[in-house]
Design a protein that fits this description.
Blueprint: E1 4-7, E2 10-14, H1 20-29, H2 31-35, E3 39-43, H3 44-47, E4 60-64, E5 72-79, H4 85-101, H5 103-119, H6 121-131, H7 136-146, E6 149-154, H8 159-167, H9 172-175, E7 176-186, E8 189-195, H10 223-227, H11 232-248, E9 253-256, E10 261-264, E11 268-274, E12 279-283, H12 287-293, E13 300-302, H13 306-313, E14 319-323, H14 329-342
Parallel strand pairs: 5-6, 6-7
Antiparallel strand pairs: 1-2, 2-7, 3-4, 4-5, 7-8, 9-10, 10-11, 11-12, 12-14, 13-14
Helix pairs in contact: 5-6, 5-7, 11-14
Length: 344
């Protein structure tokens, strides 16, 4: 069913796509609008030979450079809501899992992307803006070793996504993200909507737009889900962080969900996200409050955009602290103590 958008009194009608090729072209031609200035999107259908990657070709490659210390790589698959999930979408995504697991195929992928950067000055200049003088090939190899994601872009929600992601927690839940992209037009004017934006994919995707029909996530996701496949150094930091919370107040509870481990007192006061190279601790405190406590500046503090702030805390202020090691742990301990005290 088509929907409409009104902007400044003008009514825009939804453009409905019946052919996947046309929808793919919309994504490729509007990549900067859809993914943002910090992302690099490569339309693979025109630029990569199918045989060079063993016959497994996604619709695009996406490099998200919004966090230059932790770039994220995505194989992008563009689909239509009308496509059959189990006969069309599911088999294609399953091929990508096998592709990522095959070290020879990953090496072919790195080689193919490197060639694209060497052959296209615009692409090379864009990556240089983010990585500086670092060697492009080494950057690509390190990124693919640490980041193996799949992004499905579709023109409407499909209930099957949630069922499969909740079932296959080691593959679909960890690696697959879903974005809904819609196109609206009024005469020669266009509006493109993206839900959720790329910057929000680390903690939500389009399946969260569907109503919950089963038991809460806390029954499906465990602490082990988040610790699995993480480096031992990151696991050790998490255990130390968890113990610091407990030492501060032993009645605190930890609630694992798909995207984070929540820390609860009488309300949720913090969120923990484990990544390959660091832990992101989201605290319900202002950035200024956190800066006063973390005086050494050893742990990076990241402010949140309005949409991310609302996601984590609603009307409550919040920011993120990136923990890469256990140095200056006395500051982390003081931060946790002040956080718990604030919400007692």
């Amino acid at each position: 069913m088509a929907i409409g958008v009104s902007l400044n009194g003008d009514n825009f009608e939804q453009v409905l796509y019946n052919k996947e090729d046309a929808f793919e072209q919309l994504i490729a031609q509007n990549a900067q609008t859809i993914f943002g200035d910090k992302a690099i999107y490569i339309d693979t259908k025109k630029k990569v030979n199918t045989s060079s990657l063993g016959g497994t070709i996604p619709d695009g490659f996406l490099i998200d450079m919004s966090d230059s210390d932790d770039p994220q790589f995505y194989l992008v698959e563009v689909e239509l809501q009308s496509h059959d999930f189990f006969n069309h979408i599911f088999p294609q995504i399953t091929k990508f899992f096998a592709f990522y697991r095959d070290s020879k195929q990953r090496q072919k992928l790195i080689d193919a992307i490197f060639r694209l950067f060497r052959e296209n000055a615009n692409l090379e200049n864009k990556i240089r803006e983010s990585i500086g003088s670092r060697e492009i090939y080494k950057f690509l190899k390190d990124m693919l070793d640490d980041s193996q994601n799949i992004l499905i872009i579709i023109d409407g929600p499909k209930a099957e996504f949630k069922e499969i992601i909740d079932t296959y927690t080691d593959t679909w839940a960890k690696m697959v993200k879903v974005e809904i992209v819609n196109h609206f037009r009024q005469n020669n004017n266009d509006i493109i909507t993206v839900e959720p934006p790329l910057q929000n994919l680390s903690f939500e995707d389009a399946i969260t737009l569907l109503p919950e029909k089963e038991k809460p996530e806390s029954f499906k996701y465990t602490e082990e889900f988040h610790l699995q496949d993480r480096p031992s150094e990151i696991v050790a930091i998490y255990k130390k962080l968890q113990q610091t919370f407990i030492n501060t107040k032993e009645t605190l509870r930890f609630n694992p969900t798909k995207y984070y481990i929540g820390v609860l007192d009488t309300k949720q006061i913090a969120y923990i996200q484990l990544q390959k190279k660091k832990i992101r601790l989201i605290v319900l405190m202002t950035e200024k409050e956190v800066q006063k406590i973390l005086g050494s500046e050893h742990n990076n503090i990241r402010s949140h955009s309005e949409s991310i702030r609302r996601y984590w805390g609603g009307n409550s202020p919040n920011c993120s602290v990136e923990i890469v090691d256990a140095n200056h742990w006395d500051e982390i301990r003081r931060l946790i103590e002040q956080l718990v005290k604030k919400y007692e």
